[in-house]
Amino acid sequence: MSKKKNQIKIELLEKGDDVIHFSENRIVVKKKSGEIKIFTIQIDDEGLPRINEKSVLITFGSSKKVSTKIDNGIEVGTF
Predict the structure, then answer these.
(1) What's the angle, vertex CA 22, arms to CA 77 and CA 33, rounded to 5?
(2) Domain count, the chain
(3) Would 75 be classed as within a structural domain?
(4) Alpha helices (runs of H) in 1-79, residue ranges in sequence order
């Protein structure tokens, strides 16, 4: 991440990636592969955005029912 005058540059994209959503605290990127990656942004003490080390990757699943438990007990899965 670099800062130029009144512009903040966040280098997340690779060739073929598209930003499909941006909000105050999220950037959603569609990868060239079709997968979706969700980045969380936090503002530091100096008022600059920082990308959280953990991101969410939404990828292709199999036809079998698959579920995963997340830290706080929420279960995410396929139908």
Answers:
(1) 55
(2) 1
(3) no
(4) none
Q: Up-side HSE of residue 9: CA atoms within 13 Å toward CB? A: 6
**Residue 71, domain member (yes or no):** no
Range of the domain at 45: 2-60
Please indicate, yes or no, if residue 73 is contained in any of the structural domains.
no
Measured in whole angstroms, the distance separating CA 75 from the mean position of its chain's CA atoms is 19
How long, in residues, is the chain? 79
Q: What is the pTM of this model?
A: 0.68
Residue ranges of the chain whose pLDDT lies below 50 = none
Q: How many CB atoms lie within 10 A of CB 21?
A: 11
Model confidence pLDDT, tens digit, residues 19-28: 999 998 999 9
